[in-house]
Write a structure and sequence with these properties.
mainly beta, 1 helix, 10% helix, elongated
């Protein structure tokens, strides 16, 4: 039986620029960007987050997008 061990240092990538997520996706257009409320922020503790609502012209109901980045 042979055992091998490797020691690697953890590499943490830089935080992504979530603002680069498009304001328009196909027929969907952003209604605006929001932030997490303090209670949710305290529970989730994301390193970076984005909340945005989108609406398609034909639909009266918006779609909500949440992106959370955690190291």
């Amino acid at each position: 039986v042979a055992m091998f061990a490797f020691r690697m240092e953890e590499t943490i990538p830089p935080l992504p620029d979530l603002d680069r997520i498009p304001q328009h996706i196909g027929e969907w257009k952003s209604l605006g960007t929001d932030t997490l409320d303090a209670a949710t922020e305290a529970i989730l503790k994301p390193d970076k987050s984005l909340i945005r609502a989108y609406r398609e012209a034909k639909s009266p109901v918006p779609a909500s997008l949440f992106v959370g980045y955690f190291k």
